[in-house]
Amino acid sequence: MSDIVSRFAPSPTGYLHIGGARTALFAWLLARSQGGRFLLRIEDTDRERSTQAATDAIIDSMKWLGLDHDGDIVFQSDRVDRHNEVIDQLIASGHAYYCDCTKEQVDAMRETARQEGRKPKYDGTCREKGLGAGENRVVRLKAPLDGVTAYEDMVKGTIAVENAEMDDMILRRSDGSPTYNLAVVVDDHDMGVNHVLRGDDHVNNTPRQILIYRAMGWEVPRFGHVPMILGPDKKKLSKRHGALSVMEYEKMGYLPEAVVNYLVRLGWSFGDQELFSREELIEHFSTDHLGNSPSVFDLQKFEWMNGQYMQQADPDRLAGLLCDFLSREVEEEEAAKVGKADFAKCVPLLQPRAKSLIDMLEQARCFIVDAPFLMYDEKAVKKFLTPEAKALLEELAPRIEALTDFTQETLEEIHRQFLEDKDIKFKVIAQPLRVAITGKTKSPGLFETMLALGKDQTLARIKRACEL
Ligand code: GLU
Fold first, then answer.
1. What spacing in Å lies between the alpha carbon of 177 and ligand 1's midpoint?
2. Mutation pick for ligand 1 pocket among 23, 39, 42, 198 (CB with most ligand atoms within 8 Å)
3. Which residue in 68, 69, 70, 66 sits closest to 261, CA to CA?
4. Which atom of ligand 1 is least distant from the CA of 23?
């Protein structure tokens, strides 16, 4: 156990997209790799943009990815009184003040600064006015006017900002609501967070947040900012690049461990190793290996990685997942007719080729139906189930039927004998046979497929094909 406490603090204004999931993963690994604690806080103070559906989706996605958090989820909206309490303390200690400048006045100050070649900012008009609470008044931090605020970013190295560059930021809006920077600092402090790893869209907030920590006399956590993910065209990652929400990948039949592995490699490396088990990630993760330049999302590599995990996965688990997927698309009653055992026979055959669970389900369909319901690809039937081919299949069938021992060896043997007797090459019979028993021109090895189907099913299919 170490005393590292890290957290993920999403705003539930949309589903958890893969960029957010990657941030969560890094923060989770930071804690787990050091035996620390990982906390989850939902930053739902923006009442208009936050939704319950998004909160649920974030929680579901984290669960699906296996990013477990310690303790209860903290909802930022429950903590507004505490945020205000801290603001009041800052006012009382002289670190914050009321300001009654109107928006127009502040805009004008900014404009003047711009014209004078200075950084546009609030000019401190009310800093020393000693105003009390009142309508339309905001509370601002009395920030230091000179000096530098610097910190060692876990990813970006030293970051230093001249205090003169920073505004006296607003801590409480005129409607009484605390601002984001204030709320984050209070929550992180109260939750005991000492390592903040987040997206680099927040890097400019950090020096401001440090000013609040200092004003309160609180210990400043370590910060790290991970660069964003770009599309292959080096533009901000978006839907058209395949950047979907985490649960959309679940629906597309990706395995969570593949998603985790793909995401971690977007910005983190350990030598040139590509595939990591969860245990290996926890063992090897360190922020020292987080890259400081944006990573490029590559859907093909993502698919490849999922395929790798499909190959390695426990067949029994995949069979169970295929049942789940089937039950999503057909009536419960229909799905109930197909059990794990029906999939279990074909899963090992399909594992070397399936890219996803959806892909595997597609390929598994011909295995799980009964002969009379097998769908035949019309083109394949036309091309391969010719009268001559059917005649051969009709002759072959009794030889299969005669087998008392239905194994790879006996199947190979009777086929060899059949080809010899008929003086034909295997390819003359191979595709017709494949189409007859699977309805398609592509399938795993013929004999393996027959074995997975079983003798009766194989024969029933050949018979049906001959009657087509
Ligand atoms: N709620 C913020 C966001 O979703 C993150 C805040 C933080 O990590 O400090 O962008």
1. 17
2. 198
3. 66
4. 8
R_g of the chain computed on alpha carbons = 32
pTM of the model: 0.92
Is there a contact between 10 and 24 (Cβ–Cβ < 8 Å)?
yes
207: number of CA atoms within 13 Å, CB side? Answer: 19
CATH code at position 447: 1.10.10.350
The verdict on residue 330 lying in a domain is yes
Task: List % helix, strand, coil for the chain (3-state, nearest 5).
Answer: 55, 10, 35
Counted domains in the chain: 4
10 ligand 1 Cβ < 6 A:
yes
Choose one of 146, 181, 216: the last residue of a domain.
181
Q: Which among 153, 195, 202 is the best mutation to test ligand 1's pocket, defined by most ligand atoms within 8 Å of the CB?
A: 202
Q: What is the DSSP string of 109-130?
A: HHHHHHHTTSPP----TTTTT-
**Residue 162's domain spans which residues?**
78-181
Mean pLDDT, the chain cut into blocks of 10 residues (468 residues total): 91 93 98 97 94 96 98 98 98 98 94 89 95 96 97 97 94 97 98 97 97 98 95 85 88 97 96 96 96 93 97 97 91 74 93 96 93 94 96 97 96 96 96 97 95 96 95
